[in-house]
Write a structure and sequence with these properties.
The structure holds 2 protein chains of 2 kinds. By secondary structure, chain A is mostly helical. Helices cover 76% and strands 0% of the residues of chain A. Chain A has one domain: Helix Hairpins. Chain B has a domain at 258-476. A two-stranded antiparallel ribbon of chain B has the order 1-2. The chains are: A mainly alpha, B mainly alpha. At the A-B interface, helix 1, helix 2 and helix 3 of A face helix 5, helix 6 and helix 9 of B.
Chain lengths: 102, 476
């Protein structure tokens, strides 16, 4: 198998991270915002695994498992909150629920 | 793990175990009084456990946590503040018909996460502590889930905290991929060779994420909304414990990696501090809602803290810590009064709700006035001594530009603090509808102790200053 330089992987994870970040700032639908946050987290996970492979340590993969667990916890709380939001406002648009200004 | 290490970790272990115990207790029997009692009791036990940890410090527990004097002091501060929040929450929750018991599980978990942050010595524990804190806070911020503002605040906090975790994690990953270690100490040893581009980008991303968490300008946009929509005791927790734990981590990170030697880092943090002080105080002037006003004031206060952080040297750690203690007491007092005066139907958050408070409830009015004077930095309050130390530390390292901005910002802030003080002492409006307060004995005790501490630190700060003076050499 051919070995690719680590930089290729880092560029890929940076692109993924940028896609996620752009989505968080641009999207108005709260489910898509949550999905984009997941993309950001997984970009970080990919970079951690690459780092672990580069240095021959388990730390990177351990961090990835932590990230998976944390993302699952965040999504479960987040989806519960989004359910409440939909019940209350009949909308998933972050602009439409905004009552507070200033 | 040796017994000494377990002893050193005891405060964190007690807090974590307490949240599990409370969870099991709720499953067996729902009783607000019982759960409240167990929470307060376990927080007291955790505080007492610090005494036993002091005897074995400094102790590095695995490579993740460093239990030194600094960590234990901040853990004590976090536990005391959580205790105050729990006491202030009892009556607030009692007056609401929703389920109350889960609140205490989340509060204890959030406290445990903050303690891990205060003792973190590596990116792994930084991340774990941060997430335990954030995910519990999602639930706490959205605790008024029947009200539109509660849901809005919860969703906004979820997106904000999720995105900032993403930034911090990606930054950590880049640094790890370049440097090959997640330890602060190992990074400090490696930094002799100058940083490469990837590590710099990683560091910048971590700064952005931490900026979101500390709610400094320009990362503050949704902070006032979160403060307004969250229940008042939770707002007090977010403003004090969650920011304080993050600041403890930042302080340790700064000192261990000796970031003061990089001009660019100091410049970036200086700009953030200046923007936070100016924007926080100027936007605070425009608010009619007391919770939003206090939110902007807390943005400005983090700016003051950053000035103290940038003033390196032996005075920096003790001046930051003293200011943070004064800030904790003051904000717990101010948000505590807001929660104390809130009724089941609505929060006491409009300035008109405070009109004539001195005539209706003189003691509560006294506590709120003392907190506001301390926020403004008037002599004989803890806030004044704190600000004095920041200016002394700043003058010692010649940060003249920042000090001038700090003074200008403080003068601007007088206007909105005194607007509320004036409202308190104005003649009450006969026909006004004021919320019927959910006062309680526990909340009253917490408020009196906070006010006494506020004045005591302002009049006689010497014991605390001496205690903090020994801390400068305490960092492992």
């Amino acid at each position: 198998m051919r070995q690719y330089p680590i930089d290729y992987g880092l560029v890929l994870s940076a692109v993924l991270f940028a896609i996620g970040m752009a989505g968080v700032f641009v999207r108005r639908n709260v489910i898509f915002v949550l999905l984009c946050i997941e993309i950001m987290l997984n970009a970080a996970g990919l970079a951690f695994v690459l780092g672990g492979a580069r240095w021959g340590q388990a730390d990177g993969q351990v961090m990835f498992i932590f990230i998976l667990a944390m993302a699952a916890a965040e999504v479960s709380v987040g989806l519960a909150l989004i359910m409440r939001m939909f019940h209350r406002f009949k909308s998933l648009d972050t602009n439409e629920i905004a009552r507070m200004k200033g | 793990m040796s017994s000494e290490q377990i002893l050193a970790l005891l405060p964190i272990l007690v807090t974590s175990a307490a949240s599990v115990v409370v969870m099991l207790l709720v499953a067996l029997k729902r009783s607000h009084g019982l759960v409240f009692g167990v929470t307060v009791g376990s927080l007291l036990v955790a505080l007492a456990a610090i005494g036993s940890s002091v005897s074995v410090m400094p102790q590095a527990v695995s490579s993740l946590l460093i239990m030194d004097r600094f960590a234990l002091l901040y853990i004590g501060l976090i536990l005391a503040a959580t205790l105050a929040v729990a006491l202030l929450s009892y009556a607030y929750l009692e007056s609401r018909a929703e389920r109350r018991e889960e609140y205490y599980i989340l509060l204890l978990l959030a406290a445990a996460g903050s303690e891990v942050l205060a003792a973190a010595g590596s990116y792994v524990s930084f991340f774990l502590g941060l997430e335990i804190l954030s995910i519990s806070l999602y639930g706490l911020v959205a605790y008024r889930r029947q009200t539109p503002l509660g849901i809005e605040a919860g969703v906004k906090y979820l997106i904000l905290a999720g995105a900032s975790s993403g930034f911090i994690l990606f930054g950590m990953a880049l640094i790890y991929a370049e440097q090959g270690s997640l330890q602060f100490a190992a990074l400090a040893a490696a930094k002799g060779s100058s940083f490469d581009v990837v590590s710099l980008v990683g560091f910048a991303l971590i700064v952005v994420g931490v900026g979101f968490k500390l709610a400094v300008v320009p990362f503050h946009l949704w902070t006032p909304d979160v403060y307004q929509g969250a229940p008042a005791p939770v707002t007090a927790f977010v403003a004090t414990v969650s920011k304080g734990a993050m600041f403890a981590l930042l302080l340790r990170y700064f000192i261990q990696l000796d970031l003061y030697q990089y001009g660019a880092v100091v410049l970036v943090f200086g700009i953030i501090a200046a923007l936070s002080i100016l924007a926080g105080n100027i936007l605070g002037l425009l608010q009619n809602n007391v919770k939003r006003m206090l939110a902007y004031s807390s943005i400005a206060h983090v700016g003051y803290l950053l000035v103290a952080l940038l003033a390196s040297g032996p005075l920096a750690v003790s001046s930051v810590t003293f200011y943070l203690i004064a800030y904790f007491i003051t904000n717990l007092g101010a948000f505590g009064v807001v929660g104390y005066l809130s009724s089941g139907e609505r929060e006491a958050e409009e300035i008109d709700d405070y009109r004539g408070l001195a005539w209706r409830r003189p003691w509560v009015a006294g506590a709120l006035t003392a907190s506001l004077l301390s926020l403004a930095g008037i002599p004989l309050t803890a806030g004044f001594i704190g600000k004095f130390f920041i200016i002394a530390a700043g003058a010692g390292s010649r940060l003249w530009a920042l000090l001038i901005i700090l003074v200008v910002g403080s003068v601007v802030s007088f206007f909105y603090y005194f607007r509320l003080v004036l409202a308190i002492f104005r003649e009450p409006d006969a026909g006004a509808q004021v919320p019927y307060p959910s006062a309680s004995l526990a909340g009253g005790i917490a408020l009196s102790v906070l006010t006494l501490l506020l004045v005591w630190l302002g009049v006689y700060p010497a014991p605390l200053v001496n205690l903090l003076g020994g801390m400068t050499s305490g960092l492992l």
